[in-house]
Amino acid sequence: MIELLGLVLVRQGAGGLINRLAGSADPSWFVQLRLLPPSLHVAASAVLLAAGGVLLFAWRSRKRGRDQR
């Protein structure tokens, strides 16, 4: 479940960040672009991307630790 949440956060964050940096006016299906004011779009996308990366890294480390036992 942690892996799935991490993947969703990475996808939302990276997609939203690319959407904003490319200059698209359409929020597409990225949640943070629909809910937050435009001034927070890039920051929120970066935070989601980082949070997803941390979750995936923690899941991978935990899994690796279990496999070595």
Structure characteristics:
69 residues, mainly alpha, 75% helix, elongated
Sequence-ordered SSE layout with sheet pairings:
Elements: H1 2-21, H2 31-35, H3 41-67
Written description of the protein model:
This protein is mainly alpha-helical and 69 residues long. The protein is 75% helix and 0% strand. It is built from three helices and no strands. Helix 1 (2-21) packs antiparallel against helix 3 (41-67). The radius of gyration is 14 Å and the shape is elongated. The protein starts with a helix and ends with a helix.
Quick take:
The protein has 69 residues and is mainly alpha-helical.
Which segments are poorly predicted (pLDDT under 50) over 5 or more consecutive residues? none
Task: Give the total of beta strands.
Answer: 0
Q: Ends: how far apart?
A: 22 Å
Q: Which range does the strand content fall in?
A: under 5%
Q: What composes the largest sheet?
A: none
Helix content: over 70%
| SSE ordering | HHH
Cα radius of gyration in angstroms: 14 Å
The geometry reads as: elongated
Which structural class is indicated by helix and strand composition? mainly alpha
